[in-house]
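Title: Prediction job returns without error message
Component: structure pipeline
Severity: low
Priority: P3
Assignee: unassigned

Description:
Job completed but the reporter wants confirmation the result is attached to the right record. Sequence as submitted:
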Amino acid sequence: MTATGRLIVFEGGEGSGKSTQAALLAARLGAVLTHEPGATGVGAQIRAIVLGPGTGPSIDMRAEALLMAADRAQHVAEVIRPALVGGRDVVCDRFTGSTLAYQGHARGLDLDELAWLSNWATGGLAADVVVLLDVPDDVAAARMSPDHDRIEAAGADFHHRVMAGYRALAGADPLRWRVVDGSGSVAEVEALVMAAVAPA
């Protein structure tokens, strides 16, 4: 099946404002709003495992990557691809970039292997536009809830590697990735996002 809608993905670290901006953009475009992990019944169960409390059980980093890939495969099959094929635009909070940034750059798994795994999980589906909300560490930390999930609780060094990874991904694919300063007010960032995703 050929996708006819546009897939716009928001990426960024914890506290970057992705969920807020994804919801605003989806409302403006009349698009399907979705997220990873946990947008399907299967995904919700995976999310409970991967993003349990910061004091929860340890998960091997390869197992973590495979669980994220399983969530993405179900998400694409059940939510994203049917919407795109039906002509709907889809706005997604996290997609393959998250795997490359978190499990690749931050955890240290091989980026090529992770890219292959994500491509296989999605059946080759890639985002048309990726909006990276780039937020300084101190701003992101101030926005985060004190009740950290397992990944949020990974520590400042881990999250610094995540953002460095995101910036590297954006720099390597400037035609697809749009870097937006996410440190302003909600309205200010929304205006920057709208300009970033507007068709050329």
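Comment from assignee: result matches the submitted record. The domain at 7-197 is CATH 3.40.50.300 (Rossmann fold).
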